[in-house]
Specification:
It is a single chain. By secondary structure, this protein is α/β, with parallel strands linked by helices. It is about 40% helix and about 15% strand. Strands 3-2-1-4-5-6 form a six-stranded parallel β-sheet, sandwiched between helices.
Length: about 190
């Protein structure tokens, strides 16, 4: 493998919106300096097929190392495996619940738990609406444990013209949180400057 500047774990869970995870993988690949460790849940495999024109093989090809979500002995399940952070895009309410309560039931949520215990950045692109009190409690618990919650809520100051522009803004915000350089959206400037 090439010499990479950083190593990031990407999880794609079964919530609606796997396009966020796919676009994240594309952006990381385009940057060329990140070793990508990918884990896709079974439910995400289904939503990828339902919501995108991508195959699982196409999505998997964007990761440098791809893991079976049932393999709890994989390297990303250990704190001794050093990373620069993890992003789950999208993050389902089920995955959020496992992370919030420190009861991982899969490799993806175990890797997330490891990031929290090792005090590494964990960005959760939580995707659900409307939210009930249980969702909100789990979001609070995850935040208190150290996760960064980044629901993919579109901004409009950059005047998006396409769905891709809206997706890029949310993905760019996630990359910002891990200090990954990108050109996915135009940054805010004071009006008239």
């Amino acid at each position: 493998m090439a010499a990479f500047v950083r190593r990031i774990v990407v999880g794609i869970s079964g919530s609606s919106g796997p396009v966020y995870g796919i676009r994240l993988l594309e952006a990381l690949r385009a940057g060329g300096s990140t070793e990508i460790h990918l884990v896709v849940t079974e439910a995400a495999r289904r939503t990828i097929a339902l919501e995108t024109d991508r195959t699982l093989d196409m999505v998997s090809s964007l990761g440098h190392v791809v893991y079976d979500n049932g393999d709890l002995a994989a390297s990303i399940s250990s704190g001794s495996f050093l990373t620069d952070g993890m992003i789950i895009a999208p993050c389902s309410m089920r995955s959020l619940g496992e992370i919030a309560h420190s009861i991982p039931g899969s490799l993806m949520t175990r890797a997330a738990d490891v990031h929290l215990k090792e005090r590494r950045r964990l960005v959760l692109m939580v995707r659900e609406t409307p939210l009930h009190a249980g969702h909100l409690r789990n979001m609070l618990l995850a935040a208190e444990a150290g996760a960064i919650l980044l629901p993919p809520i579109p901004a409009f100051y950059h005047r998006p013209e396409t769905i891709g522009d809206i997706i890029d803004h949310s993905v760019g915000k996630a990359l910002d949180l891990l200090s990954v350089p990108h050109q996915l959206f135009e940054r805010w400037r004071s009006p008239g400057r």
